[in-house]
Specification:
By secondary structure, this protein is an alpha+beta fold. The protein contains 5 helices and 7 strands. The chain has helices at 2-69, 76-103, 115-127, 154-171, 223-233, and strands spanning 111-114, 137-142, 149-152, 176-184, 188-194, 237-243, 247-255. The protein has a 5-stranded mixed β-sheet with strand order 2-4-5-7-6, with helices on one face. Strands 1-3 form a two-stranded antiparallel ribbon. β4 (176-184) and β5 (188-194) form a beta hairpin. The protein is globular and about 70 Å long. The termini are far apart. The model has no long low-confidence stretch (mean pLDDT 79).
């Protein structure tokens, strides 16, 4: 009986370890494939952006010259057309710059930073965006007892947190609760950004971090791609939990050096 029990225990243990290792390898493989796709795509869009930027700049300059040389001579409709060329050129220039920033793999310069001032700084900026912020949004923070610190490049981390915050605000246009939770241990710091919005459709999760996949009107689809890039450059981890009608939570882990 003892021998039988031992064989059963070994069989169960081996089966559990085999399943665990299989799932781990599959998860790492999926992450590697995504990183490779993002890297290749970043190189392509960077080349395209560089090619487009020069003629776009020429168009913008031509519009300015035309506006100055024809001052007082254009009809109201013609002035509107020139203004459209200027405004759309500026918008495309900003989009191109975002693309170039995304494609640029700048190594982070991690430092030990207090987390809460970074969160407050992000919230202050996000609240100024009237397009996504609603007075009905309430913010709740939970850090535990001790002050939380994070090892990260300050500007890159602020960029990632701002993108997640703006997404959360936009998901709660009619009001809701934004919860920012954080814990720190010997491995590093985990930050969770949770909204009480409508959630993300399951079919969109597989492409969630790919650029140019935005479902928002006028969106570039670069926000979450930038977040993924920043976390990856810090050798961290990012996960998402979502439930239709109840909201979405992004979990970010930044390791200690």
């Amino acid at each position: 009986l003892y021998g039988t029990a031992m064989r059963i225990a070994v069989f169960v243990t081996v089966g559990y370890l085999s399943r665990f290792l299989s799932e781990t390898v599959r998860e790492l493989s999926d992450r590697l494939k995504l990183s490779e796709r993002l890297s290749s795509l970043g190189e392509v869009v960077s080349k395209i952006a560089h090619e487009v930027r020069n003629p776009l700049s020429a168009i913008r300059t031509a519009a300015e010259v035309l506006k100055e040389s024809t001052a007082g001579k254009l009809t109201g409709q013609e002035e509107k057309m020139v203004a459209i060329v200027e405004n759309e050129s500026d918008r495309l220039t900003k989009t191109l710059q975002r693309i170039l920033n995304y494609a640029k793999q700048t190594p982070p310069n991690p430092k030990r930073l207090p987390l809460d001032p970074l969160v407050e700084r992000t919230l202050s900026v996000a609240r100024l965006n009237s397009r996504v912020y609603s007075e009905g949004i309430r913010v709740e923070k939970k850090y535990g007892n001790a002050p939380i610190h994070i090892y990260a490049d300050e500007e890159q981390f602020l960029g990632a947190l701002l993108n997640l915050t703006l997404n959360a605000f936009q998901a709660m246009s009619g009001g809701g609760v934004l919860r920012i939770n954080a814990t720190e241990d010997l491995r590093g710091t985990k930050i969770s950004v949770q909204d009480s919005g409508g959630g993300i459709p399951r079919e969109k999760l597989k492409d969630l971090f790919l650029p140019f996949k935005s479902s928002k009107k006028g969106g570039t689809g670069l926000g979450l791609a930038e977040v993924h890039k920043i976390v990856t450059l810090h050798e961290g981890e990012i996960e998402v939990e979502t439930e239709p009608g109840k909201g979405t939570t992004f979990h970010l882990f930044f390791p200690k050096p």
